[in-house]
Every structure is written in C-alpha cells, then in structure tokens.
Amino acid sequence: QVQLVESGGGLVQAGDSRTISCKFSGRTFSAYTVGWFRQAPGIERDFLAAVDSRGNPNYADSVKGRFTISRDNAKTTVTLQMNSLKPEDTAVYFCAAASLARPDGLVQRVDYWGQGTQVTVSS
After folding, report:
1. Which of 16, 27, 59, 121 is the most exposed place for a label (fewest CB within 10 A)?
2. Taking 90 as the threshold, does the pLDDT of residue 102 lie above it?
3. Looking at the predicted structure, is the pLDDT value of residue 103 above 90?
4. In this structure, are strands 117-122 and 10-13 parallel, antiparallel, or unpaired?
C-alpha cells in the first residue's frame, strides 16, 4: 500500500511563490509516476503536473511555465514549486501516484491519493 503525505500548504499573498511536497512510502518509488492535482470548492479535481521515475515531467497547459515539478528519488519526495500565485490558485492540492511509466498517464489513472494540503492565495 502506498502512502502519500503532502506538506507545505498555507496562506500566501498573490504574486508569491510556494513549494509543496509529497512524501511517498510503502512501495518502490521508482516504479511510480507521481504528480499533483488540485480541487477548489464546487469544482472538479484538476490535473496539474506529474513526473515519471526518470524525472520527465508533464504539465497541464494552465500551469505550464509557472509551476515546476521535481522528484528526489533518494528522499522519495516530489515537490511542486508554484510561482506568481494568483487568488484563483486557491485550492486543496492533492498528491497522486500510479504505477505508470509515462507522466502523461496520470491524467487518466491514479492508483493512490494523498489527503491534500490547502493553499490559499490572498489578493
């Protein structure tokens, strides 16, 4: 069983940067693509970014160029650096993982979810 624990959420000002992290445990990290989704109240959960075991990323068009995903295989951690944050980025951010070889596959299939971390961007 995979466990995903997010951290780093909080309250930030518009224009600020924030990095959130996801700690993976329970299975062989290198066998999983890991990524991030977010969900705002009343809106469906949206894919943001994913990274495969070799470090190849995939981004949603909505965050490309503003968000950066990275992976530390030694620490079994995936981080999402978010720049130029806007109030509309306010959401619960969820870590997700699937036994996939390609990062674009996480858009279609998630095997495990974290509990989420709240990011609130004030104007």
Report:
1. 16
2. no
3. no
4. parallel
